[in-house]
Amino acid sequence: MNFDLTPEQDQLRDAVRSLGRKYGHSYFVEKAKSGEHTTELWHEAGRLGYLGVNIPTEYGGGGGGITELALVCEELAATGCPLLLLVVSPAIAATIINKHGTEEQRKKHLPGLADGSQKIVFAITEPDAGSNFHRLGTVARRDGDDWLVSGRKIYISGVDEAGHVLVVARTEDSSTGKLKPALFIVPTDAPGLEKSKLDMEILSPENQFLLFLDDVRLPADALVGESLDAGLPALFAGLNPERITVAAMGAGTGRYAIEKASDYTATRKVWGGRSIGSHQGVSHPLAHAAVQVELARLMIHKAATLYDAGRDLEAGISGNMAKYAAGEAAALAVDTAVQALGGAGMTTEYGVATLLGAVRAGRIAPVSREMILNFVAQHVLGQDKSY
Ligand SMILES: Cc1cc2nc3c(=O)[nH]c(=O)nc-3n(C[C@H](O)[C@H](O)[C@H](O)COP(=O)(O)OP(=O)(O)OC[C@H]3O[C@@H](n4cnc5c(N)ncnc54)[C@H](O)[C@@H]3O)c2cc1C
């Protein structure tokens, strides 16, 4: 068992932390409040190679794995810059295209994802299906060599920043007549694709959208992979990277909040000469949250290591557990930090309450805590499927 990062991973962690500190949480908040995006940070991270760490070198990436990408997600979040699009574009979209796309799709899309000049977002959730992906109603049907895709998607992050969106749709398998899932790389300016921004109570420079697809016409090569058989494995390929990197983002956010609060409670004095942190009523909740964050980090490390070793099934269990643990730990850490900071915790200046919405959402998306518990009950505890 090895808990050490390699020297290269250590260097990456330090370098990403420096970049994050250069921008910091106030930059993240200013962009969110002004309705702008973190474009400068994204492009600089791309130029430095951090967005493509998990993309093979032949397509312009760093040739690393999800371990490296999780480090990038965690360290940026630990400096107050939790970028959800890292989970969507390099983790989900790049993994799916790399593992299940055609060679043309890899050549066309991966270099831009690696250097940050392109983003591809991911659309699976639907208003009438929610957590139940078996109910997906978006349909793709053949029209000559083309595809026509129609349906609705909800809460899709970053559509306004992306050149393409990976849309999950149902198709009919002509040999069996059964509906099977397929993924399509859809240009965000395709005729028939409309987006409508959702008003979310999350302070974030990244936005969510409702998507309407009305007979969006796509060429045959928009389908991910060589045939419809690629659909299901492609869909599953995105899940582990998604869970591991979103967990890393949660762990980083938890670290950020605890660090902010600890700095404050170690120096703030309101009872004579003693710091408020010397009172266990203040320090123990912070220490408890720090333990939860560290436990989540261990599970993230395990899940990423298993995934990069190609042990997908075990990584699935650890990745789900890591996502659950980190989601809970991040929410606990931010709430505890706000409490320890007192009134300062609710100010923009101290930059902790600004994360309350994001960490609350982290217990719902991209997979809810309940759906993870369903998964663990079934696959770890051997219970009958409950849904
Ligand atoms: C900030 C944010 C960003 C997002 N970005 C994206 C994105 O980029 N792309 C994308 O496709 N989607 C995205 N989503 C959608 C997200 O994945 C869904 O919100 C999530 O999967 C839950 O689906 P739902 O909201 O429809 O909840 P529902 O499925 O309606 O569930 C509501 C509640 O019931 C619980 N529940 C449902 N079924 C069960 C069950 N069988 N057992 C126990 N409990 C159950 C859920 O856990 C949840 O608490 C985003 C969501 C948010 C909030």
From TrEMBL:
Cofactor dependency: FAD
Keywords for the protein's UniProt record, in alphabetical order: FAD, Flavoprotein, Oxidoreductase
Single GO molecular function: acyl-CoA dehydrogenase activity
Domain Acyl-CoA dehydrogenase/oxidase N-terminal: 6-116
Annotated Acyl-CoA oxidase/dehydrogenase middle domain residues: 122-198
GO cellular component: cytoplasm
CDD domains assigned: ACAD
Gene Ontology biological-process entries: fatty acid beta-oxidation using acyl-CoA dehydrogenase
Pfam name, any one: Acyl-CoA_dh_N
Location of the Acyl-CoA dehydrogenase/oxidase C-terminal domain: 230-380
Keyword Cytoplasm assigned: no
Family: Belongs to the acyl-CoA dehydrogenase family.
Protein name per its UniProtKB record: Acyl-CoA dehydrogenase
